[in-house]
Amino acid sequence: MTDSGFRPLGVPIEPKPHAYDPVVNPELFEGVLARRLIAFVIDVVIIAIPPIFAALFIFIVGLVTLGLGWFLFWFWWPATVIWALCYYGLTFGGTDSATLGMRAMDLEMRTWYGAPAYFVLGAVHAIAFWFTVSFFTPLVLLVPFFNERRRLLHDILLGTVIINTRANAANFHTRRAQAG
Fold this sequence. Notes:
Elements: H1 32-64, H2 73-92, H3 100-104, E1 107-111, H4 119-135, H5 153-158, E2 160-164, H6 166-179
Helix pairs in contact: 1-2, 2-4
């Protein structure tokens, strides 16, 4: 506070440090990549089920209405995209900061400074993933092998990190202590 009583508002200038250090806490990053791949497959299946049923419904309605119902397919693709964005936004923005697949694999997403994810970050995370994979080919998936936090390109761009849940990290820490 200055002498005049004026207190500046806004974002502090000093950057926040990384909350998750792989050297200090390796248990947070152990096995994340393999389980993240499995979580992705689980999420794709979960996301695909409602659009598949909707497409079957539209097809049957089209048959019954002699082709008139097939015009609903114009809404099917946008509805599928909206469904996927809502899925990622709601699951990342939930209390666990993880999709259903990530929860099954004991993973969670955090910001680089340790805050939990939120709806917009989850939706943008999905968009950034599909754009980076589409524009930079699947070779972009090699990025985590060249950084210590095993972050994908879209994680780096958005300032997120995928880590083990606290319970899972404690299991890795206990196993490491028993082995060492």
